[in-house]
Amino acid sequence: MKRLMLLPLLSGLIAFPACGADSAKKTYRNPLMPEQMADPHVIRVDGKYYLYGTTHTRGYDVYVSDDLVRWENKGLAFDDPRRGAWAPEVFHHARGDGKFYLYYTDNLPGHTRQLDKQIGVAVADSPLGPFSDQAVLVTTAIDAHVFQDDDMQLYFYYVDLAQGFKIRAQRMKDPLTLIGDTTVVIQPTEPWEKISGHVTEGPFMLKRNGIYYLMYSGTGADSPNYGIGYATAKSPLGPFEKFKGNPIVQRGGKVLGPGHHCVIEGPDKKLWLVYHQKWDEKTNFKRFLAIDPMWFDDQGVIHAKATRETDEPAP
């Protein structure tokens, strides 16, 4: 039996699907929203999807959906006075205290430069928030991700800016506390990761049939060359071997800079990438929300697609 383990993910109506004559023919079209959004993360709680992402940088709004296509903005879930909020992730500690933990990237105190960032954690009783700030976990770092293994052990993944956009992994005592040493598990080594800056970031872990799949994005996020790859290991701390067919999602046709994703099971019981694309080919951070299918083949290889401005079968 094939077994896949996902980290418990992924004002007014702002996105509409194109629909056929009946529910079996519902479609979606990227972009899903007209406004700017990047670095999306989705969790599912009691049959509803909750979305968090990089938007106005004053904190994080939370969006709610029944189908991954139509999203309603429910307002600010975390108000951050540092005003540099990026790349959120919310971990539902469903097999623990039941609380929701927001891992955020924001400015170091007194700093506004792009790379003067830190990762902190805030907690709430509801996915809608409000989230209460608890602690700073890592400095000079971005892009937090938490994975809970079958044995309940938590692992923390993040991008070390001081060491040059290397992805590190570390064990956690609980959702608020790191323990032990950190390990570099992914770093820029491949040509596609170095086209527009030497970057590996946006980690996201899957587990399937005892194999750990650490997905990530490569090269600069302000570039249309941004893409998604993955590496595999027999342990959540590695060593990881990069897939030789990387990147599995990349620019092509109208699709520009696809990356920084999460993976969530859709209402159709299939896997979906929730990610961002760039609006144009210029070097900037103008990005939008997108979804597309992702799947494993019989050999355990990940496949995915990226679409833009075409009608596609909805989840």
Primary descriptors:
about 325 residues; Tachylectin-2, Chain A; about 0% helix; mainly beta; five-stranded antiparallel sheet
Lay out the secondary structure.
Blueprint: E1 4-6, E2 27-28, E3 38-45, E4 48-54, E5 59-65, E6 72-79, E7 86-92, E8 100-107, E9 117-124, E10 132-139, E11 141-148, E12 154-160, E13 166-174, E14 177-186, E15 200-208, E16 211-218, E17 227-233, E18 241-242, E19 259-265, E20 271-278, E21 287-296, E22 302-304, E23 312-313
Can you give a write-up of this model?
This protein is mainly β and 315 residues long. The chain has one domain (4-15, 27-313): Tachylectin-2, Chain A, CATH 2.115.10.20. Helix content is 0%, strand content 50%. The chain has no helices and 23 strands. It has strands at 4-6, 27-28, 38-45, 48-54, 59-65, 72-79, 86-92, 100-107, 117-124, 132-139, 141-148, 154-160, 166-174, 177-186, 200-208, 211-218, 227-233, 241-242, 259-265, 271-278, 287-296, 302-304, 312-313. The strands form 6 sheets. Strands 1-15-16-17-18 form a 5-stranded antiparallel β-sheet, with no helix packed on it. The chain has a 4-stranded antiparallel β-sheet with strand order 3-4-5-6, with no helix packed on it. It has a 4-stranded antiparallel β-sheet with strand order 7-8-9-10, with no helix packed on it. A hairpin with a 7-residue loop joins strand 7 and strand 8 (100-107).
